Amino acid sequence: MTVTEPDVRSDDATAFDQLIAKVRAEFDTQFTWDYERGRDGLNRLYEKAKRSQWNVSDDLDWSIDVDPERMIRLQAEATGVPAGFPARSLLDVKGSPVASWNDDQWVDFAVNSQCASLSQFLHGEQGALICTARLVESVPWIEAKYYGSTQVVDEARHVEAFSRYLNEKMPTTYPINGNLKSLLESVLRDERWDLVYLGMQVVIEGLALAAFGLMLGTSQEPLLKALLRYVMADEARHVAFGILSLQEIYADLPADEFRLRQEFAYEACDQIRRRTLNAELWPNYGIANEEIEALLPKQASQQSFQQILFSKIVPNCKKLGLLDHRDGWLRERFQEMHVIQFEDWENTAEALSLDGPVNDEAARSFDPENLEGVEIIETITN
Length: 382
Ligand SMILES: [Fe+2]
Ligand SMILES: [Fe+2]
Known about the structure:
382 residues
């Protein structure tokens, strides 16, 4: 069973148009003529970012040969989790469309699932690149413009890294998932710049940190592991940037405005919750997404997998006061989603040591083997 690549013909006059998507937005671009730098947290983050730059071309060993099928089999051996998990739990479901699949088919599915995940990472990274560029334009604080500009460079590097990995090492790339696309578009259409922070820095990047941590916890492929470590160290700063900035904004926000942020956070979480069923994958195996949607969400393994993706978002929302505003409205939503158990996990701003002196000698040395903010998430096996 082989998955074919999307039909985009380079000789077609419309091919280029098919590869371009536009979002129309109206928002204020803000200059600030106040160069005073009073926000210590953001200043420290900016110093940390400038010392933590790495280069996709030089710092990763692209000579490593990657055999995707072997990588999946090795991973299954090493982790004890069979290839194609958690979808593979549908093997035991009577009448499921994959009930007759053998191990080779699951390995093929797992390779494509890995391609699909990496593709969504790639597209999400481009979304982050564009959202961060927007922030640099629209945020009125000089410290945030400074820091945001380092994140623009980080995100370009992440797009470059995932794109190169997919092109050089993996068999195929998938288009952006519909839910991720509509979330990115709604973030970018909004004129309120703080919603870019909330949608991108807190929700999408929080999801990414957990997804990268999960992949790092299972993959046995050295190039991918190194790539993920570098990217995660950057992402932890990005999420911290969101938290530090939003804490200040939310401190003075009127209750009805804050309520809108609560609802926006929930809507964004709901969008990405519906993202995890591999909708871009199943039709290539002749299986309708409806069939999978009727079965897979009931599987305990799928539920655990989906829940752990919120392990960064929930504590960060708590840190921002979003859980308990308005009689715990978001807390209730997270309870319904069965993700409230993560509320007391370490939030990402605390995970980075931003309280130390800025010119501390240790902070000056950038050690790729010991990157701050890289947290491996244990494999889900039940
Ligand atoms: Fe990124
Ligand atoms: Fe990021």
